[in-house]
Automatic annotation (TrEMBL):
Modified positions (4-aspartylphosphate) in chain numbering: 53
GO molecular function, one term: ATP binding
Top-level lineage group: Bacteria
Lineage: Bacteria, Pseudomonadati, Thermodesulfobacteriota, Desulfuromonadia, Geobacterales
Annotated keywords: ATP-binding, DNA-binding, Nucleotide-binding, Phosphoprotein, Transcription, Transcription regulation, Two-component regulatory system
Example GO BP: phosphorelay signal transduction system
Name of protein: Sigma-54-dependent transcriptional response regulator PilR
Name of a matching Pfam family: Sigma54_activat
Gene: pilR
Organism annotation: Citrifermentans bemidjiense (strain ATCC BAA-1014 / DSM 16622 / JCM 12645 / Bem) (Geobacter bemidjiensis)
Length: 457
């Protein structure tokens, strides 16, 4: 997108000259002959930059600068005047002007100043955007879902985030363990320091010690210089040790020492280094079973397991599927504002499917549909493995007919009402989602609600 610049000067010849110069550089340029006209333009249009004369009839350039910075602080302002004074220059810079140049000026000087000002502004805006994105992504709102299981996750993160306690996150692969670890970090006092993640199972056993603790020059063949490890890189922040159950026993003893003494040594090093690092570990294995088998140290397990956070599988929180589908659709799709993101039969298929890969598998599935060009996720764009999995109704036990008999219609009506209420409860009251959960059309669902006088509720 081309930057838009507003040129403000009471001299027509100067406005025309700067407009031609800037348009030749590829910018969009508007003109204003005085400060009042400039403020009117800014009320109608957003400008990345304003180039203004200082001395103008009526409201002067310095006053205009003050108004711009008050109303649109992100707009870069370049001041130009034929009567440069040190006092004016200092005042302009204090008020937030990007720079201040005198007439006559060199054409190349103006080009460079404008280019640099816009580049700086772009970097500032991008930095703000990235910070906001990180904050949003790893805040509690970034963990998608309103099910009871996810609310329990949010509550526990809120309680442990401010502490220094080590956290052990458990759960199946694809449930979002690293996302939970990041949420703990970015909602803690350490959020301004590094968050460093490492998959312990992806590092060869011969290299993992050096990777975690670093090494000194000459510690082994190929160690040509000192190299800091992940503990040093995450100083003051959080170190996330994913798949902690893959760490070999020999290294577990050294990890235990770091947790106990808050210090470590590089491989081949002679001095101890302090470790101001919070440890969050995760595993999809049963570490207690590994302790019993002797493949994981019991003392390390208890050091890591000060607080245990269990991430539920997607099967356990199936009511979150519609919200997750919407989130991933918006993430990958160029189509915005669609009335319908997924058809009822496709959503029903997702509810029936067990999702062995959990949330990660659902994300990949939605991305696949978008890549294949689907504006609406329909049944025919889902993989055959999902379409053909019919699922099975939950076991509810057998119902026996009492000796005195029963009214079958009353029994069925009561059961139907209970299922309608459960569906609405699971879907947060959203009727379209509840209808899909029960495998019926929205019209049919509304008819049943009206049948039992539940439509207003």
């Amino acid at each position: 997108m081309r930057a838009r610049i507003l040129v403000v000067d009471d001299e027509l010849s100067m406005r025309e000259f700067l407009s031609i110069l800037l348009e030749g550089e590829g910018y969009l340029v508007d003109q204003a002959e005085n400060a009042e006209d400039a403020l009117r333009c800014m009320g109608e249009q957003r400008y990345e930059m304003v180039i203004s004369d200082v001395l103008m009839p009526g409201l002067g350039g310095i006053e205009l600068l003050s108004r711009i910075k008050s109303e649109s602080p992100e707009t870069a302002v370049l001041m130009i005047t034929a009567f440069t004074t040190a006092e004016q220059a200092v005042e302009a810079m204090k008020l937030g002007a990007y720079d201040y140049i005198g007439k006559p000026f060199k054409v190349e000087e103006v080009k460079v100043l404008v280019r640099n000002a816009l580049e700086k502004q772009s970097l500032v805006q991008e930095n703000k955007r990235l910070k906001a994105e990180v904050q949003e992504r790893f805040s509690f709102s970034g963990l998608i879902g309103k099910s009871k299981q996810m609310r329990e996750v949010y509550d526990l993160i809120a309680k442990v985030a401010d502490s220094m306690a080590n956290v052990l996150i458990t759960g199946e692969s694809g449930t979002g363990k690293e996302l939970a670890a990041r949420a703990i970090h970015y909602n803690s006092p350490r959020k301004g320091a590094p968050f460093v993640a490492v998959n312990c199972g992806a590092i060869p056993e011969t290299l993992i010690e050096s990777e975690l603790f670093g090494h000194s020059k000459g510690a082994f063949t190929g160690a040509f210089a000192d190299r800091p490890g992940l503990f040093e890189q995450s100083e003051g922040g959080t170190l996330f040790l994913d798949e902690i159950g893959e760490v070999p026993l020999q290294l577990q003893a050294k990890l235990l020492r770091v947790l106990q003494e808050r210090e470590f040594r590089r491989v081949g090093g002679a001095t101890s280094l302090k470790a101001d690092v919070r440890i969050v570990a995760a595993s999809n294995r049963n570490l207690e079973e590994q302790v019993r088998e002797g493949s994981f140290r019991e003392d390390l397990f208890y050091r890591l397991n000060v607080v245990m956070l269990r991430m539920p599988s997607l099967k356990e929180r199936a009511e979150d599927i519609p919200a997750l589908v919407e989130h991933f659709y918006k993430k990958y799709s160029l189509w915005t504002g669609a009335d319908e993101i997924i058809t009822p039969d496709a959503l029903k298929a997702l509810f029936n499917y067990p999702f062995p890969g959990n949330v990660r598998e659902l994300e990949n599935l939605v991305e696949r549909c978008v890549v294949l060009g689907s504006r609406v996720i329909a049944l025919d764009c889902l993989p055959a493995s999902v379409r053909e999995h019919t699922g099975a109704p939950p076991a509810s036990g057998e119902t026996e007919i009492p000796d005195e008999g029963m009214d079958l219609q009353v029994y069925l009506d009561n059961l139907e009402q209970k299922l309608l209420v459960q569906a609405l409860d699971k879907c947060g009251g959203v009727k379209k989602r509840a209808a899909a959960l029960l495998g019926m059309t929205f019209r049919s669902f509304r008819y049943r609600l009206a049948k039992f006088g539940m439509d207003e509720e």
